[in-house]
C-alpha cells in the first residue's frame, strides 16, 4: 500500500530558513528548523519561530513533536508536545522549547532542526450530551489501573477513600 501524498502549502516568512523535510521516505515527521539562535538555561523554556507559515488542508492538522535524539542527548523537549497547528492558522509556526536538563544549558543556532511536524487527518465531531454512558470493558479505570513497572520513590498522591469527595 502506498501512502497518500497531500500538498501542504507554505510561505517562508524568513527567506533563509530551511524547508521542512522528511529525512527518509516513510518518516512520519518532517524536520523543522528554528529561525533564530537561542540559548536555554537548565529548566528554561522559550517560544522560538520557524520562519514558516503553513496552509494545511481542511480536515488536517499539524503536530509539532520533539526529536528523540535531542531529547535523549540534551534533554531538549517541547512544553506543549505535540503543539497543534490548526488548518486555519496563518501565523508563523512557533515551537515552545524546554531544556529539561537540570545542569547544562543548551545552545541552538538558526537552521537547527529541533522539532518535527507530523501532519495528520483530523475529524471534527459533534459533542452530544448524554444522561449516562454505555458500559465498557475498561469502565472508569485509568491512571495505572492496569498496573505498572516503574519503581516509584516519591510519596503517594492517591487519596484514600475517606479523603475522596472532600
Ligand atoms: O506548538 C505550537 C502550537 C500552536 N501554534 C499556533 C498554531 C495553532 O493553530 C495556534 C493555536 O494553538 P493552540 O490552540 O494550541 O493554543 P491556544 O492557547 O488554545 O491558543 P488559541 O486561543 O489561539 O487557540 O497557535 C504554534 O505555532 N505552535
Ligand atoms: Mg486553541
Care to describe what's here?
It catalyses: dUTP + H2O = dUMP + diphosphate + H(+). With 166 residues, the chain is mainly beta. It has a domain at 9-18 and 27-121: Deoxyuridine 5'-Triphosphate Nucleotidohydrolase, Chain A (Distorted Sandwich), CATH 2.70.40. It is built from one helix and eleven strands; from the N terminus they run E-E-E-E-E-E-H-E-E-E-E-E. A four-stranded antiparallel sheet has the order 2-11-6-8. Strands 4-9-7 form a three-stranded antiparallel sheet. The protein has a two-stranded antiparallel ribbon with strand order 1-5. Deoxyuridine-5'-triphosphate binds at residues 64, 80, 83-86, 89, 93-96.
Descriptive key words:
metal-binding, binds magnesium ion, EC 3.6.1.23, about 170 residues, three-stranded antiparallel beta sheet, globular, Deoxyuridine 5'-Triphosphate Nucleotidohydrolase, Chain A, 1 helix, four-stranded antiparallel beta sheet, about 30% strand, binds deoxyuridine-5'-triphosphate, dUTPase, mainly beta, single chain
Helices and strands in order:
Elements: E1 9-12, E2 30-33, E3 38-40, E4 45-49, E5 52-55, E6 60-66, H1 68-74, E7 76-78, E8 83-85, E9 94-99, E10 106-108, E11 113-121
Antiparallel strand pairs: 1-5, 2-11, 3-10, 4-9, 6-8, 6-11, 7-9
Organism: Propionicimonas paludicola
Pfam families: dUTPase
Pathway: Pyrimidine metabolism; dUMP biosynthesis; dUMP from dCTP (dUTP route): step 2/2
Amino acid at each position: 500500500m502506498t501512502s497518500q501524498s497531500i500538498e501542504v502549502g507554505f510561505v517562508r516568512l524568513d527567506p533563509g530558513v530551511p524547508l521542512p523535510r522528511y529525512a527518509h521516505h516513510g518518516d512520519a515527521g518532517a524536520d523543522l528548523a528554528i529561525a533564530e539562535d537561542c540559548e536555554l538555561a537548565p529548566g528554561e523554556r522559550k517560544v522560538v519561530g520557524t520562519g514558516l507559515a503553513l496552509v494545511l488542508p481542511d480536515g488536517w492538522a499539524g503536530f509539532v513533536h520533539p526529536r528523540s535524539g535531542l531529547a535523549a542527548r540534551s534533554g531538549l523537549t517541547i512544553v506543549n508536545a505535540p503543539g497543534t497547528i490548526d488548518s486555519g492558522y496563518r501565523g508563523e509556526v512557533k515551537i515552545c522549547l524546554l531544556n529539561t536538563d537540570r545542569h547544562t544549558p543548551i545552545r541552538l543556532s538558526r537552521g537547527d532542526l529541533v522539532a518535527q511536524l507530523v501532519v495528520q487527518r483530523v475529524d471534527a465531531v459533534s459533542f452530544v450530551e448524554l444522561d449516562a454512558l454505555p458500559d465498557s470493558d475498561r469502565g472508569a479505570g485509568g491512571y495505572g489501573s492496569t498496573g505498572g513497572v516503574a519503581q516509584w520513590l516519591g510519596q503517594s498522591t492517591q487519596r484514600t477513600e475517606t479523603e475522596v469527595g472532600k
